[in-house]
């Protein structure tokens, strides 16, 4: 009897263990199912590239808000291109010269608003040109018609005093007039662009040259809409592109940005951003 009891007891234990094992089997695939569901979501949010974009303050193209956020026309344009190209941007603030050195050594991946030169092509790749840089003549409100139809050279020859900002590159036309003894003395140079607005209102100059987006931002911020207006004269200084470091960015990334720019122009997002910073 004892032997029969032992065998029966062992049989019962084996049956119980087998039953417990069977009841747990359906739960085993669940971790795998959860992982499979999470994978597509992770792939959607992960950027294909991460880039350090250098910037230096120049409102409204690039500036820091009171909330410590980097904003501006240039920032919005490049961010839109990066998003369309599947890239994530990290903003790094330095002086322009230090940013150029960063492009050379690869610590900075890209810069916006850069002019393409043979010297820079030795260490940088360039995107397609995406923005036209020009300067407009601004005069006191009500005086635009007074100088209507005249060229910048004719204005200066007639005694027109023109305000310019030191170290700005206004293009070949202005450079030639600044080098010409007959017109050079008509230029009034100031260290910062905002001095031109003050000099114009105080009748110290007859007009000044300014980037239209910078002028729109400054006039709006200072409430000078009733005192200053744009003149039809526009001076083209060149087109700008994105500049990528050859040390850290490959050609495929540049192509992706070019394709992104094309799509933004086609879907209207490019124009929407530009219009946001215009009058």
Summary of the model, kept short:
The chain is α/β, with parallel strands linked by helices.
Q: What's the main sheet like?
A: 9 strands, mixed
Helix content: 40-55%
- CATH architecture annotation name of the largest domain: 3-Layer(aba) Sandwich
Q: For the record, what CATH class of the largest domain applies?
A: Alpha Beta
Count of discrete structural domains = 2
* Number of helical stretches of at least 4 residues: 11
Could you walk me through the main structural features you see in this protein, from its secondary elements to its overall organization?
Keywords: Signal. It is found in: Cell envelope. The protein contains 11 helices and 11 strands. The longest helix is centred in the N-terminal third of the chain and has 23 residues. The strands form 2 sheets. Strands 1, 4, 5, 6, 7, 8, 9, 10 and 11 form a 9-stranded mixed beta sheet that branches. Strand 2 and strand 3 form a beta hairpin. Helix content is 44%, strand content 24%. It has 279 residues and is an alpha/beta fold. The N terminus is likely disordered.
Give me some keywords for this one:
279 residues, alpha/beta, D-Maltodextrin-Binding Protein, domain 2, nine-stranded mixed beta sheet, two-stranded antiparallel sheet, 11 helices, 11 strands, 44% helix, globular, disordered N terminus
